[in-house]
Amino acid sequence: IPHEPAVPALICGFAFLTLFSLLANLFTLYTIERSEDFSWLPRFILCKNLIFSNLLQTVTFAPAIIHSLAQHQTMAFGIYCYFQYVVSEATIFSSLTTITCMALERYLFVCYALQYTVTVTRERVRKVIVLIWLYSIAISVVSLSLVLSKGRQENIPDVTVGLLCEPDIMEQHVGSPRAPAIFRKVAGSLTLLLCLLAHAFSYFRMYRNASNAVVPFNESNTAARRTVLFYCGMLFLQLLPLLIKVTSGALWLTGVIELSAGSREDCLAGPSATAAGFHVSLLVMLLVKPCINPLVYGLRSVELRKALLKLLRWRVG
């Protein structure tokens, strides 16, 4: 691992993110479940699905990363790598599509308030959640099938070049087959495009509605503008790992070639050390999202904060 003196600090950082993610998500989930007013609302049913995806990401990624850092070596290749590959793909797609559905749900609530209770029901929301997971798992399973069928079948090294068996690391480890990479990029690009269009449409219409509501009173629409900008910033945070992967792809390819061609000492001093920095940044962002999601889409809600204070008062009493 390049920059080995930084390993203890990385272990502490990842341990803190893990603990914070578990506490924030479980605390938010407990608050929703304990409140009879919120547990059945479509908005919070989607929020619970997002929390489940966050917890699955945290318990799958964090222990493996911390163990690799504690052992001062990259991830060993085995059955658990395939599990990490599937979970990584499925949770990323699930989180992105769930947040998009939450934006569409808010759009229907704000712009079609009278038809909202008839259109958005618990049964329909649960069907949407089932479709989200079927879609996410299908993409991850198809990607893994392409890796197994098109990748190298023999002379596979026992150790990967990453701290986690995320898709790019796995594909490089089995010989960088083109089919799974092309499939992931096409599926990811189409999903991302649809999600961005849905977000843009939802928040633009909600902003227009809020603007029209205050025009007769000659008031500024600062609150609506701040809300839209805030959630756009949170969407950018969700997409930041994808930007890091695009930037680091070429650097990781250079690092792998040097690792196979030269000695370990030569590799540590060259571009692979820079690629390792991008790789660690990606892993940090994968664990930062589960920490922020329950705060942004759960505890930021005024209703949920009131329920939390009521629950705390009841506990104290």
UniProtKB/TrEMBL annotation:
InterPro entries per record: GPCR1_Superfamily_Member (IPR052921), GPCR_Rhodpsn (IPR000276), GPCR_Rhodpsn_7TM (IPR017452)
Keyword Phosphoprotein recorded: no
Alphabetized PROSITE patterns for the sequence: G_PROTEIN_RECEP_F1_1, G_PROTEIN_RECEP_F1_2
The entry's keywords: G-protein coupled receptor, Membrane, Receptor, Transducer, Transmembrane, Transmembrane helix
Superkingdom of the organism of origin: Eukaryota
Residue spans crossing the bilayer: 6-30, 51-70, 90-116, 128-148, 186-207, 228-253, 273-296
UniProt-annotated location(s): Membrane
GO cellular component, as recorded: membrane
GO molecular function terms noted in the UniProt entry: G protein-coupled receptor activity; odorant binding; olfactory receptor activity
Keyword Membrane found: yes
G-protein coupled receptors family 1 profile domain sequence ranges: 24-297
SUPFAM superfamilies given in the database record: Family A G protein-coupled receptor-like
Similarity comment text for this entry: Belongs to the G-protein coupled receptor 1 family.
Alphabetical list of PANTHER family matching this protein: G_PROTEIN_RECEP_F1_2 DOMAIN-CONTAINING PROTEIN, OLFACTORY RECEPTOR 2G3-LIKE
Protein name: Olfactory receptor 2B11-like
Species in which this protein is naturally found: Poecilia latipinna (sailfin molly)
